[in-house]
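Hi Prof. W.,

I finally got the Elongation factor 4 prediction working! I wasn't sure whether to trim anything, so I left the full sequence exactly as given:
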Amino acid sequence: MESKYCNLIKKEGLGVKRPIFAVDLKRFTTCPFDMEMIRNFCIIAHIDHGKSTLADRLLDFTGSVTEREKQDQLLDNMDLERERGITIKSHAIQMEYVYGGETYVLNLIDTPGHVDFSYEVSRSIAACEGALLVVDAAQSIQAQTISNLYLALENDLEIIPVLNKVDLPSANPEEVTDDIVDLLGCDPEEVIPASAKTGVGIEDILNAIIERVPAPEGDPDEPLQALVFDSVYNPFRGVETYFRVVNGEIKKGQKIKFVATGKDYFADEIGTLKLNQIPKNKISSGDVGYLITGIKDAREVKVGDTITDANTPTQNAIEGFEDVKPMVFAGIYPVDTEDFEELRSSMEKLQLNDASLVFTPESSAALGFGFRCGFLGMLHMEIIQERLEREFNMTVITTVPNVSYHAYTTKDRETALIVNNPSDLPDPSTVDRVEEPYIKATIITKADFVGNVMSLCIEKRGQITNQTYLTTERVELTFDMPLAEIVFDFYDRLKTVSKGYASFDYAPIGMRTSKLVRVDILLNSQPVDALSALVHFDNAQTIGKKMCEKLKELIPRQQFDIPIQAAIGSKIISRETIKALRKDVTAKCYGGDISRKRKLLEKQKKGKKRMRQVGNVEIPQQAFMAVLKLND
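And this is what came out:
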């Protein structure tokens, strides 16, 4: 293993990302014959390199789906996944394939490719022994390809490189094969050319999985030890838990125990995951399956937990599970405050299906009761909001996203106050320093766009740390950047300046001191806490001005003037005014003395003044997301 991947380990600046989910599966010499017939593998790649299409062809070739069941992106069962053409959830499915006269059981876990869903990838990798590394023959190796490869190597997986889309006119198979060989240190013959669209190379891939991926190791005579790698909520049957048996076996009706929560349940139904669930009486070590215990409370099942027998529990829980660390924070509030409990229930069920979502209750003066939510990135946040609306019929308001800061006061310069919300920042006069999270950003782009990409990163307060020419045409740039600068429009702007050719990946590298201030937005002299933002002092004036201009466009006019102000503490740094809708009160005056008109205008002026004192300004949802589109 070490010699094969030595080239990759020696390379520097490849955006190494430590796995969020690293599992140390114990190795055993005992390996029964039936376990030799099992192969557990996943598909990893950059977004849009053909993972889901390849999974479709594997299912077709092994006869796992009938003609009636066939459809594109078969494993992407969410409408949202189909519409956007991306995988959001990892999906497990079992196939059977005859090779050399023997029938093998192949457990495939399809994984997402976007950087925001790397947590899903890390969980899938933990349940496998091998991985298909899919690389687009037209786009070559991208940033997320390298990141996911490191996750697989950390878990000691056997890597099978697949060169996909060789049928495209723009494909460059020889050059991309050389890139893969250089990255992995493997032989060119080990790279399998394929086309998931036309079915070329699918048989070679299946044969390679059986030949190269090791059979799972475990001892069926040991006490039950199973890893929970996913779970979903079924409104009729409760929580459905997906697991991989490491040691021992699980039987229908058995009394089982979840180690993390310490609670006991009965295995009402167990089975394997084909296109539909297939109930079984027993699942042995090395295999993947589902479990239904009738659990109704979403919080009782934790992804990464260990399932064991309640009467003879294992002494060693599967190690390596870490709670996910959110990168972006935003408030989610129900439009109607009476729906707060319903929103809580919806969030808990969604969290069961997406373990990387974290939330805590909070309240806002402007929006009432809601939740402070942590996400892995902006796409993840967008998907959660969309799923709440589609799957649970919850119309929500999302506040301006921000990251988590550390504030130190002059009284206590050693103890950090965690600031997830701009309103949590202490009074500026008592703040000693504020630290913000930094990331190591890895960008792979064409040589033509290096100048544009560097200008964008420097504008976002990035510091270049490395520049490597992977080939004469492809450059890898590494920057240290504040996370707060990339959570808004960075990814979209990067695609724009590179004409869609740049790929982006990042990994956290810790906290650094920055000169940060809180910009408050005042509407009609009332601060709106949901629109506050923590920004760097140098950018505060510009952002305050742009925020006021954007809000002026979005907030509807009222019967009175609405001043919109941006302030740092008590200092106003920008102002815009939404002019009042004016009713022509002098329209009924046909001539006559001017004093009559003046009297009516004075009366109207007093009414508007009184209205301004008691009037409420309705803020539309777009206004809360205005900060995301400041550069539009």
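The chain has five domains: 6-212, 225-309, 328-398, 405-514, 517-629. Does that look reasonable to you?

Thanks,
D.
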